[in-house]
Amino acid sequence: xxxxxxxxxxxxxxxxxxxxxxxxxxxxxxxxxxxxxxxxxxxxxxxxxxxxxxxxxxxxxxxx
Length: 64
Prior knowledge:
This protein is an all-alpha fold. Helix content is 52%, strand content 0%. It has one domain.
């Protein structure tokens, strides 16, 4: 399960299928230099993305 405390790079490295989800929310996280340190909740907040919707979509992607 993906949680708001996980770093973006951990999510992407463990679940590469989430890259498209991040992109669909306007987050090009794989190109971001701070993805290794940034928690997904912080990244969502910086880009005005609803964290609940993002987490739902990320978790749906890893379940499929």
